[in-house]
Amino acid sequence: MSSLTLAIDAMGGDRGPAIVVAALTRALQSFPETHFLVFGDSRVLLPLFQAEKIQNHPRVSLEHTDEVIEMDDKPGQSLRTKPKASMRLAIEAVAEGRAQACVSCGNTGALMAIAYVRLKTIPGVIRPALVAQIPTEKGCPGFLLDLGANPRCDADTLFQFGVMGSVLSKEVAGIAQPKVALLNIGVEDIKGTDAVRQAGQQLANCTDINYIGFIEGNDLFSGKADVVICDGFTGNIALKSCEGMAQLVYKKLSSSLKGHWFSRLMAWFLLKRFKKAWQWLNPDQYDGASLLGLRGVVMKSHGNASATAFYHAIKQAHAESSLQVPERIHDRVESVLLKSQ
Fold first, then answer.
1. What is annotated about its quaternary structure and interactions (predicted)?
2. pLDDT of the residue at 207
3. What angle do CA 220, 121, 91 make, to 5 degrees?
4. Which domains does the chain have, with CATH numbers?
5. Which residue, among 305, 136, 310, 291, has the nearest Cα to 228 in the 3D structure?
6. Are the C-beta atoms of 37 and 6 separated by less than 8 Å?
7. How far apart are CA 332 and CA 184, in angstroms?
8. In this model, does residue 23 exceed pLDDT 60?
């Protein structure tokens, strides 16, 4: 696919449109053949475009709407009462074929509800799942799902997450037999909720899945599993807790290196190596959770995303669109799910 068009919801998130426009400016430089449809309030966005000197950019089209889905809006209400919201119009662009992917840092529930209704899911898939890459000790990224789209999941839904995550890891990360695990409060078969234990049995009985059993939270980034499955409530808390700890370690270490003169001297020698190590852990570079299981690419950026994080979400959407990920994995997912039912 030589030329792509990405739809951008410019009005979502906690930090406002400024970080979206800053990320867009960087994306225009990184992807010289990509066009961007930007949906939002032109009265707010045009001054930001002017500040970034992209107001007349030939690869940016601004489509005005003054309807916005707020972060605390209920998903069902947003779907019914805000047909011209920037998020909805961005998803509509994908559904209509005007864009190959949508990127938003807005309301997660609303994003999933609208995408579910407008794009539909792969045959056999009960619910789409938010999946994102996470760093591992092995150096290659793992996949964690669900991250908040489905706070409560039954065994069948967790099983399908395992199937979809395994296919994604194989097709995108190139892992021949991805190791799949369920996140649990212990590794023993008797641990966990009924849904988790039943999903474990279903995965163990599926010959198409390399299921390795339960893992606990302290092994989330160990690389023991290439794909880690959980409900959205657990996954969202686990991921954000780890992000917060990474930020705390970074701040504490930075503070200590600015103290005593000897510490400052050591910091001068270690700065480059420290920055390189932090880049591997920096949550911003892993921003961008894909709604896996839809007939199109929908990328959810963190609600509190920085401009750098939102740029990485755009970058991830661009990669999945370029690789035609939905088309590459849909047939395989459908085949495995239908055979496993």
1. Homodimer. Probably interacts with PlsY.
2. 87
3. 95
4. 1-123+293-327 (3.40.718.10), 126-286 (3.40.718.10)
5. 136
6. yes
7. 27
8. yes
Helix, strand, coil percentages, rounded to 5, for the chain? 50, 15, 35
Q: How far apart are CA 297 and CA 317, in angstroms?
A: 7
What amino acid occupies position 199? A
Biggest CA–CA distance in the chain, Å, is: 65
Task: Encode pLDDT of 203-231 as tens digits.
Answer: 999 888 999 999 999 998 889 999 999 99
Which tens digit of pLDDT belongs to each residue from 182-197?
Answer: 999 999 989 999 999 9
What is the SS3 string spanning 175-220?
CCCCEEEEECCCCCCCCCCHHHHHHHHHHHCCCCCEEEEEECHHHC
The CA distance from 45 to 229, in Å, is: 39
pTM of the model: 0.84
Distant-in-sequence, close-in-space partners of 64: CB < 8 Å, separation ≥ 6: 40, 41, 42
Query: How crowded is the C-beta side of 25, counted as CA atoms within 13 Å?
Result: 18
Closest CA to 226 of 139, 333, 313, 315: 139
